[in-house]
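Thread title: Can someone regenerate the structure for this chain?

I was given the following input by a collaborator and told the matching structure tokens would be attached. They weren't. Posting the sequence so someone can regenerate them.
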Amino acid sequence: MSQLIGFQANPKLRYSEYLPWVISALVFFFLPDYLSLGARVWTYVLFALSLDLIVGYSGIITLGHSAFFGVGAYVCGILASKYGLTEPLSLLLVSGLSAGLLGLLTGAVILRTRKLTQLMLTLAIAALCLEVANKATSITGGADGLSGVTISPVLGMFRFDLYGKTAYLWCLSLAFIGWWVIRRIIYSPLGVSMIGIRENSARMLAVGVNVYARQLKVYTFAALVAGVAGALLTQTNQFVGLNVLGFEPSGELLVMLILGGVGRIYGAFVGPFVFLIAQDYLAKQFPEYWNFGIGVLLIVVVLYARGGILGVWDQILARYEKKH
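Best answer:
Regenerated them for you:
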């Protein structure tokens, strides 16, 4: 419960919190060849923020968060390719609400369990969604994926181009909105109660907190955000593959959070950036062994960087402050 001491509701932004957005603006102007990769990074930042909200801040164990990401991706793709709904903002809204509804329905069951049972149920939900998508070939394309996805220009003016400019700015904008909303939740009474539940749920029950209701609320919202991230991936790729519902996205996302720092909002920024940049570089240099490089990186961080990369940064700052 020590993390609740010194809590301040919705504190003012520190200057350092502007840094990711300043860097992203510089990338747009000075690294145009990497805008497509940048769009993917910001999509996964939003996805990672949703997972960190339930794993890092709420203590809910899950390995099936890809279910919501995949549902958002498929709802967006199906509506665009089969039903002609191509307006980006409407697609994000419907996809997010669909994933949120799935989160509400599944969370109502999952959150009544604990530990290993909870973990296995989240995996089961993701596996069921994967199997449904695989069998419903007339709607989802099955193992061949869903192609023919067409997305209208953003706000009727900005068309998704081959250079990734619109995709980058669109993903950046949604990631900013997601970060701002999640930051406010974390520093709200709901957020601080979730940290208390993570630290000691029995004590929170004793003081009259409805643990189940609050966990369900946060779980549903995190599912909604993950669905929006999945829809973003569909809009920028204009294709949906079965891999969005597999174990791989959930596993990779946990690796990203561990690299950046679990339970630290900016760990969801650092982790996807380091993971996807390393993945892109290693896949080009060592196409057959890039997974080995990622594994070595993760082992080094777990063994020598307590709290992830941000934990190392905190240690450096602490030593600097002691000397001065």
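The two ends are 30 Å apart (CA to CA).
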